[in-house]
Amino acid sequence: MDILLYIGIFIVSLGALLKASDWFVDSAEAIGLSLGVSPFIIGVTIVAFGTSLPELATSIASVYNGESEIVVGNVIGSNITNIALVLGLTAVVVREIDLEYNIWHIDMPFLWGSAFMLWFILSDFEITIVESLIFLAGIAVFLTYSFKGNTPDESGEERPVATVRHYVLLVLGGVLVYLGADYTIYAITEISSQLGIAPKLIALSAVAIGTSLPEVIVSLSAARRGKASIAIGNVLGSNIFNTYVVMGVPSLLGPLEIPEDIKTFYLPLMIAMTILFGIMSNNRRISRWEGVILLLFYVLFLAEITRSL
Questions:
Q1: Per-residue pLDDT, 137
Q2: Where do the domains of the chain lie, and which CATH numbers do they carry?
Q3: Which residues pair with 287 in a beta bridge?
Q4: In angstroms, rounded to a whole number, what is the distance separating the alpha carbons of residues 253 and 184?
């Protein structure tokens, strides 16, 4: 009976998430474009960080509840999910994703840098306060360079005017995306816990998928509407945000437990997926077949988790 209740919560939360994501994408783009910000920068900042809030909230709650190993599993699992599942599905749905020129100028180097920084910092199985502050400094530098590299639209087209309605829907959509994802995570976690699954495996799979649902839905919604640049920026920004902020903030609140297999297997897998994303995007596009390859890697990732149960 309990499981049926949690399944009901999952369905309702997911429905709210779907609708709220549409409001959030439309409003964020309208406001950004009215300010002369390119769609890619909108995706890499406003949309990406808004959809990454569930990861941060879940990780902070995990530290306070004494389940700190969920933090690292959540970050690594979400980053793998964002690249393999979100990008893979988006590429398959839209046939081909065209990337903007500056992906290698600013964002991809920061993505690679954040992945290797995480590997280096976790090499001794602990995160010090100084290392936490280094993470937060990293996101500050990333934001500075992102807005510095923003190229306003000079096509001559008239900019849209953002109204009060856009701002209201942006805030309301962001809140509902967060709440929808939060209750979705709650339902998935409860169902998984009743099945006796270890916390770190829940974090790598169920929690990672749950916290990545906003990225999945927002990216697919943006891509279906011909806004693939927002989808790509969303994944890039979310992964960078996950590593720098979702790891940095909780580690300031208390010590984090780093399971050995996280560092020896799942973290190297995340780095490999990040490198693969960079290689695929080198020609400024990701094809449908490359999307299929990413999805296959995600299936293998889930298969390894299942084998560990």
A1: 93
A2: 38-151+198-308 (1.20.1420.30)
A3: 96
A4: 25
| Cα 183 from Cα 232, distance rounded (Å) | 26
The segments of the chain whose pLDDT lies below 70 read 1, 18, 40, 43-44, 47-51, 99-103, 149-160, 181, 185, 188, 199-200, 203, 211, 228-229, 309
| Opening angle at CA 233, ends 231 and 234, nearest 5 | 60
Find the angle CA(245)-CA(71)-CA(51) to the nearest 5 degrees.
50
Q: Which helix (H) or strand (E) covers residue 97, if one does? A: strand 96-98
Q: What pLDDT shows up at residue 181? A: 67
User: Is the CB of residue 235 less than 8 Å from the CB of residue 52?
Assistant: no
Burial 185-203 (b: 16+ CB within 10 A, else e): bbbbbbbbeeeebebbbbb
158: Cβ contacts below 8 Å, ≥ 6 apart: none
DSSP strand E in the chain: where?
A: 96-98, 285-287
List the structure tokens of 233. 């920026």
Residue 43 has a pLDDT of 64
pTM confidence score: 0.77
- The pLDDT value recorded for residue 298 is 92
In this structure, the number of other CB atoms found within 10 A of the CB of residue 122 comes to 19
1: Cα within 13 Å, side-chain hemisphere: 0
Least Cα distance to 51 among 74, 25, 70 occurs for 25
Rounded to the nearest angstrom, the gap between the alpha carbon of residue 153 and the centroid of all alpha carbons in its chain is 26
For residue 199, what pLDDT is reported? 65
Q: Which two tokens stand for residue 106?
A: 């600013």
Residue type, 125: F
Can you tell me which residue has the tokens 């149960």? 309
201: Cα separation from own chain's centroid = 18
243 burial (CB, 10 Å; 0-12 / 13-18 / 19+) is buried
